[in-house]
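Work Package 4 report. The design task specified in the project plan requires that, given a folded chain encoded as structure tokens, an amino acid be chosen for each position. We show below one input record used in the internal validation round.
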């Protein structure tokens, strides 16, 4: 059986977050996992019990993008522009696939309607079976 050690207070978590920000060697924001480990909780337990802090960390990491040159010499803005272009291309391809799938569904629906009509017409015919030997 596990021993219940209790949860840290909000002040403890905020102090640990401040310590992580101070100790950060890079310009990247600390992760939720690092903060959870710092206060001695599992990641899921931390996320479940401190959703406001997790949301705050997520918001701050989104708003504080690093616009310095990356490995390839391109900035984060250029990387986002390239990602946007890829996503637009992918969206265009998906739209084309959707159009083709819609046309195929229409064709199959019309074919199914025609086959149902043929089946109904054939049901009106009586078939004569040869007599079976007894």
């Amino acid at each position: 059986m596990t021993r219940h050690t209790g949860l840290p207070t909000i002040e403890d978590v905020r102090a640990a977050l401040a310590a992580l920000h101070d100790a950060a060697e890079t310009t990247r924001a600390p992760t939720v996992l690092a903060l959870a480990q710092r206060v001695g909780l599992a990641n899921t337990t931390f996320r479940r019990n401190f959703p406001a802090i997790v949301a705050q960390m997520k918001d701050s990491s989104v708003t504080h993008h690093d616009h310095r040159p990356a490995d390839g010499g391109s900035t984060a803005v250029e990387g986002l522009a390239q990602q946007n272009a890829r996503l637009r291309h992918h969206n265009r391809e998906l739209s084309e696939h959707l159009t083709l799938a819609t046309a195929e569904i229409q064709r199959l629906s019309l074919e199914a309607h025609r086959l149902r009509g043929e089946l109904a017409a054939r049901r009106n015919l009586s078939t004569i079976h040869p007599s079976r030997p007894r």
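The CA atoms of residues 74 and 129 lie 80 Å apart. Validation will be extended to a larger panel in the next phase.
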